UniProtKB/TrEMBL annotation:
Domain Peptidase M48 as annotated: residue spans: 189-354
UniProt keyword Metal-binding present: yes
Gene3D superfamilies associated with the record: Metalloproteases ('zincins'), catalytic domain
Cofactor: how and how many bound: Binds 1 zinc ion per subunit.
Residues annotated as domain DUF7092: 11-85
Protein name: M48 family metallopeptidase
Annotated organism of origin: Marinobacter qingdaonensis
Similarity section: Belongs to the peptidase M48 family.
Swiss-Prot/TrEMBL keywords: Hydrolase, Membrane, Metal-binding, Metalloprotease, Protease, Transmembrane, Transmembrane helix, Zinc
Length: 357
């Protein structure tokens, strides 16, 4: 190479023809407007348009792609960079190489990546889930609701012990709020559930479940009506379907980021996803509270009924924790509130009590 003119570049490497896996020692020579590939079996002239230079990644071998699937491989990165400076196709490679070695740009890229990822989880996933949930046909919600109810009946729920007369009286009291919403018919079901205790559930198909313990806890039927208004809010906003879609999107985003399904079982990966999903649920609960408060006010029902039964539920939960000997301090209580899928109970009670004035 020492005999080559100053303007000439000669790069040593191996040539793969593309027609077989055999390789030959080769030279790639650049002189003026032409390129020349020289091997023991051939000597051919190439144009710059026929040459594609791979980007530089550290000091790994470079690949120069030639016509007819031919590839010229070399470890002489410096000469390839010099060749790239003569070729328009090498500009992107040089840019990529500079970016890879610029610490400032690497830090900026890391910050942008984190911001985009956070934005996808905080804003992108909820927005997409909401759009998909409202676009899905009602038949999907009905199928999901029926499957969910069957699963609950076989695990956590038992047949109600409420007398038939009491069930009919409550359904009659609930009737004004049971008009179809968001294309879903509303249907109240009563179940006993020692495992769940005093609670109410809204399924995607408009099935609203009240447990016997919740009915027993109420001191006025309007308290149960206020809980019903909250659960109807979930159906009106299609929260059941939205939550299902959201969970799926969150799962697949993490799988795409990690590239491994088994990574989802790693607590370092799962915990952020769980916290994100709970945050979404808190937003949904606030929307359902908004719906309930507006409904109660429009129908002239005192919002204090909701605050009263929520306060009783909160006291019951605290009593249950005390019975188990739980002496956690306020820091653990704060963590419990963070991990709760509902907004803080005291916040909700205060809001409805203020609305009652």
């Amino acid at each position: 190479m020492s005999n080559s003119p100053p303007s000439e570049l000669v790069i040593e490497g191996q040539y793969y023809s593309g027609g077989s896996s055999l390789r030959e020692d080769a030279l790639l020579r650049s002189s003026g407007a032409l390129l020349e590939l020289i091997t023991a079996s051939q000597r051919r002239t190439l144009t710059w348009q026929e040459l594609t230079i791979s980007p530089r990644v550290g000091n790994t071998p470079r690949y120069l792609h030639l016509p007819e699937d031919g590839v010229f491989e070399t470890t002489d990165n410096d000469l390839v960079d010099a060749l790239g400076r003569r070729s328009a196709s090498g500009r992107w490679g040089r840019l990529l190489h500079r970016l890879e070695h610029n610490l400032g740009l690497i830090l900026v890229a890391a910050v942008v990546t984190l911001a985009v990822t956070a934005g996808a989880f905080v804003y992108g996933v909820p927005w997409t889930a909401k759009a998909v949930a409202h676009a899905l046909p009602d038949s999907i919600a009905e199928q999901v609701g029926a499957t969910t109810l069957a699963s609950l009946d076989s695990t956590w729920l038992e047949p109600t012990t409420l007398p038939e007369q009491r069930q009919q009286a409550l359904r009659a009291h609930f009737a004004p709020l049971l008009e179809p919403v968001s294309g879903q018919r509303l249907n109240v079901q009563f179940r006993d559930s020692p495992a769940i205790g005093a609670n109410a559930l809204a399924l995607p198909d408009g099935t609203l479940i009240f447990t016997d313990d919740l009915v027993a806890l109420a001191q006025h039927d309007d308290e149960l009506l206020s809980i019903l208004a909250h659960e109807v809010g979930h159906v009106a906003h299609r929260h059941g379907m939205q939550g299902m879609v959201q969970s799926s999107l969150t799962f697949w985003l993490i799988v795409m980021m990690t590239g491994d399904l088994s990574a989802f079982s790693d607590t370092t990966v799962v915990l952020p996803a769980v916290l994100m999903s709970l945050s979404y649920s808190r937003d949904m609960e606030r929307q359902a509270d908004d719906y309930a408060l507006e409904t109660l006010q429009l129908r002239g029902i005192d919002p204090a009924h909701f605050a009263n039964i929520m306060a009783r539920l909160s006291a019951q939960a605290e009593s249950s924790a005390a019975d188990t000997g739980d002496d956690s301090d306020d820091r653990w209580a704060a963590l419990e509130d963070l991990l709760s899928s509902h907004p803080g109970t005291s916040e909700r009670i205060r809001r409805f009590r203020e609305a009652a004035h």
